[in-house]
Automatic annotation (TrEMBL), chain A:
Ligand binding (Fe cation): C35, C62, C106
Keyword tags: 2Fe-2S, Iron, Iron-sulfur, Metal-binding, Nitrogen fixation
Gene3D superfamilies, A to Z: 3.90.1010.10, BFD-like [2Fe-2S]-binding domain, Fe-S cluster assembly (FSCA)
GO MF assignments: 2 iron, 2 sulfur cluster binding; iron ion binding
Alphabetical list of InterPro entries matching this protein: BFD-like_2Fe2S-bd_dom, BFD-like_2Fe2S-bd_dom_sf, FSCA_dom_sf, N_fixation_NifU, NIF_FeS_clus_asmbl_NifU, NIF_FeS_clus_asmbl_NifU_C, NIF_FeS_clus_asmbl_NifU_N
SUPFAM superfamilies: Fe-S cluster assembly (FSCA) domain-like, SufE/NifU
Domain called NIF system FeS cluster assembly NifU N-terminal: residue spans: 4-125
Gene Ontology annotations of biological process type: iron-sulfur cluster assembly
Taxonomic path: Bacteria, Pseudomonadati, Pseudomonadota, Betaproteobacteria, Nitrosomonadales
The protein's name: Nitrogen fixation protein NifU
Automatic annotation (TrEMBL), chain B:
Gene3D superfamilies attached to this UniProt entry: 1.10.260.50, Aspartate Aminotransferase, domain 1, Type I PLP-dependent aspartate aminotransferase-like (Major domain)
InterPro entries, per database record: Aminotrans_V_dom, Aminotrans_V_PyrdxlP_BS, Cys_deSase_NifS_bac/arc, Cysteine_dSase, PyrdxlP-dep_Trfase, PyrdxlP-dep_Trfase_major, PyrdxlP-dep_Trfase_small
EC main group: transferase
Native species: Parasulfuritortus cantonensis
Protein family according to the UniProt entry: Belongs to the class-V pyridoxal-phosphate-dependent aminotransferase family. NifS/IscS subfamily.
Upper lineage: Bacteria, Pseudomonadati, Pseudomonadota, Betaproteobacteria, Nitrosomonadales
Role summary: Catalyzes the removal of elemental sulfur atoms from cysteine to produce alanine. Seems to participate in the biosynthesis of the nitrogenase metalloclusters by providing the inorganic sulfur required for the Fe-S core formation.
PANTHER family reported for this sequence: CYSTEINE DESULFURASE, CYSTEINE DESULFURYLASE FAMILY MEMBER
UniProt record, GO biological process: amino acid metabolic process
UniProt-listed PROSITE patterns: AA_TRANSFER_CLASS_5 (PS00595)
Name under which the protein is recorded: Cysteine desulfurase
Catalytic reaction annotation: (sulfur carrier)-H + L-cysteine = (sulfur carrier)-SH + L-alanine
UniProt subunit comment: Homodimer.
Keyword Transferase set for record: yes
Amino acid sequence: MWDYSDKVKEHFFSPRNSGVLEDANAVGDVGSINCGDALRLMLKVDPDTETIVDARFQTFGCGSAIASSSALTEIIKGKKLDDALKVSNQDIADYLDGLPPEKMHCSVMGREALQAAVANYRGEEWKDDHEEGALVCKCFAIDAVLIEETVRANNLTSVEDVINYTKAGGGCSSCHENIEEILTKVMAERGETFSPHAVELKEEAKPSKLTNLQRIKRIETILDSIRPQLQRDHGDIELVDVDGKTIYVNMIGACAGCQMEAMTLQGIQQRLMEDLGEFVKVVPSRAGSYARAASHV
Amino acid sequence: MDGIYLDNNATTRVDDAVVAAMLPFFTEQFGNPSSMHSFGNKVGLSIKKARMQVQELLGAEHESEIIFTSCGTESDSTAILSALRASPEKKEIITTSIEHPAVLALCTHLEKEGYKTHFLKVDEKGRLDLDEYAKLLTDKVAVVSIMWANNETGTLFPVERMAEMAHAKGIPFHTDAVQAVGKVPIDLKTSKIDMLSLSGHKLHAPKGVGVLYLKRGVRFRPLLRGGHQERGRRAGTENTASIVGLGLACEQAMQHMAFENTEVKRLRDKLEAGILAKVPRAFATGDVSNRLPNTSNIAFEFIEGEAILLLLNKFGIAASSGSACTSGSLEPSHVMRAMGIPYTAAHGTIRFSLSRYSTEAEVDRVIQVVPEIVAQLRKLSPYWGENGPAEEPEKAFAPVYA
């Protein structure tokens, strides 16, 4: 049984705004019957103010697809079209107190239905380029198509590359066999052979001894390079302090209190260790201040 | 626990008498059956008795043909890999497209290691084409593995006949009988079946114990080597309590065989007929005239299975679905796809599987609840109109990237 939040269950058992909206002037049909999800979003838009006066949906799909549709209509009602378009799939998931990684695509479908409906209202054609493959990384909800395309576009050659570019495989690591298979396939297309040991053989540059200032600047640079990934998920990180081997950081936005926070921190710590060439510990600063307070007693 | 449990093909309740028979083997009878002292000796005798109880249910000729394993999957893997290792020059496997993942995923994996697997197709009722099968039986084939009964639809396959056909060509034959054992009569001594897998928890024994039947004289290569347990064919200290439990469960299954095929079957038929009479655009999948007595798989068109299960669960009813969403994959059940069931119906398949514990009152309750649930979800579905499917549903609702 899926670990659905109470909010998801509640919206599934008593969906808001379901059924046909008779005088809708914006309709978006999206979904894939092959995957077992399809959604029709119907909006009534006030032409003078471009405000969504009413929203209804019809959904063929699982519990979280129905709950996501219900949540979407609740979120966008009363919003102006341009504001509604800013609603991300993460917003829908957050509204429902989170969705299991396998089910994040349900919230994506909601956002796409919204885009399609707005395009329909404005007389534009909405085209979706999104193709979904089998879920490979369950920790970060990354599917095979995305991994394949990323490996192809960036000429990736190792599981580590895939983790750095897509996050896939960066959690529990049980999908590494699948990732290796994707690498083998895509590398064969460009006439290369995947070798799991290639990375380990790479010569490791010994970092020279840094001054404190150089070291902190280096840490800042590394964090800056990770930042875009976090911001893509509506989060951020800031450096608070460096105390010997311990690096104190603040997780901001969606990263703060995210279920994946520990995993994200672990990934960041790994990156820092690799780049600095030394062992370091990354600690969220509040926990850090507690620890420091305790050590001064 | 209260509730209506109609998911017995997934797993079953351990019978109370089975639990009672097992308990002493955790405490007083904890000895290792391999030990020389009397702590172990009695345990050894109990395992012997269990072996004979399994032998009886399977109609095996010799008690030594029974090998205890940890589960059905281990038995399947042991059987198939043994046949391959025994004939390393043969590089082909014959199985079906509707096997349990225990066989399917192994065969798909073996393809990467250079084996060619023939996945027999099925027709719209899930039946195999024996002419296609006959043509594939060549001297390149190392093993045939065909399930006795399908776990999703309950459809039975003519494994005895297929074993004879393989035997005539000198090819070893394995059957995954995990769903069939205890529900249909089996008499292996009169068959040409070389290997058979079963799983304890499907017949009211505990999880974590299974059996591989290995006909005397069949060439065998163990999967696990080590100690001399199971005559060196499956090393590892015996799961004594569970083996004893499985033995008793087999004896009970033998006693309930007639009941299973009369009373349980009657309840299953009543459930299916009751639902189909009240719900439009629903149909039973599989070969309904030739299937397990306890299984009914119904496709509800234009709605999705996980949503049905969640609502059933709200009423305390447990079943399962071939929908993609219940597994976390994006494709609906490979069994439904193999039978050519359209996506709009395949995603809405629900499997009800009964047991000897199922009651008339439970069946009546499910017949009452299911039509309400289906109507509730169809109201939400873009493929469903006022009182029936939207006219030409595929056209009325054609999403952008369908």
